[in-house]
Amino acid sequence: MNTKYISELINRYFNQRHAAETESEIQKWLISKRNEEQKAEVLYDIWKNIKSKPNAKVYYSLNLVQQKLNMKRSRRMLWQNPFLKVAAVLLPFIFVASLYLYYDRNYGTVEITTAQGEQKEITLPDSSVVWMNACSKITYSRKFRADKREITLLGEAFFSVKKDASRRFVVTTKDLTVTVFGTQFNIKCYPEDQIASTTLKSGKVEVTLNSKDYILKPDQELLYNRLEKSSVLQDVSESSLSWREGILNFSNMTLSEMVKSIERQYRVNFAYNPIDYSNDNYSVKFTNKDSIEDIMQVLQDVVGGFSYSIKNNVITLKKQSK
What we know:
The protein is an alpha+beta fold. 32% of the residues lie in helices and 33% in strands.
């Protein structure tokens, strides 16, 4: 961004010639560290053209700064500092910027994502811990509310929630909402998957799905079929939490379902026509020590009926005629 363009942005801002939503973005940019030298140069030029005199509000604000810095100067000495003239113009902005910084540092939103083949461990503001699986995203406030701890999840994550009877812990996804006070559980809700699930390891959780509440006990899981709009509460299957141990466990899954999971975990993409393959279910297990070549050879034996090639992280499946 060149100085001329920055000058135009800032001057338009001080002349209130931006739309309200644009002004908000400019305020964030002005207090950021981006383009610091150019912004300083433009602000200095603004100072040179300032003809306004300080008023009582300006002196009051500057006196507060003096107190913080233990400065002892007269009004005249204060105004001899050239950059204090800029304060006369900038104080309204500084006030707004300060409010923004306070909100951002205390109540602003944190967003954390994982890429293909990536997992992360995150500690939340209340000391709860989240383990994120590949291709996932969580968002939460830097500072939780006094009565509730709220998280939004896209993808898959395992939560170990610090017990706090006065503040419920709520995880919201596209399909379901999970409420706890202190427990360990897993949620899987990838938007491309047909099944969304909540699995309870310890404690107790309440799952709200389609305006209906379900109470899960340890070693139970709730499965929601998005296509059929149906749900099943059952005992935990072996595959539900195996991803945390580096195991890719497919239990009664179609080739299409397995492909989606392999793409997320191995940083590859598949090129194939799903309608060429049946919806038969298969069960097979892999570990993180297995290469993508190992996995494809096993799938070729288990599923059968296709050949494959791997090039530039793209796996092309070709249906073989019988």
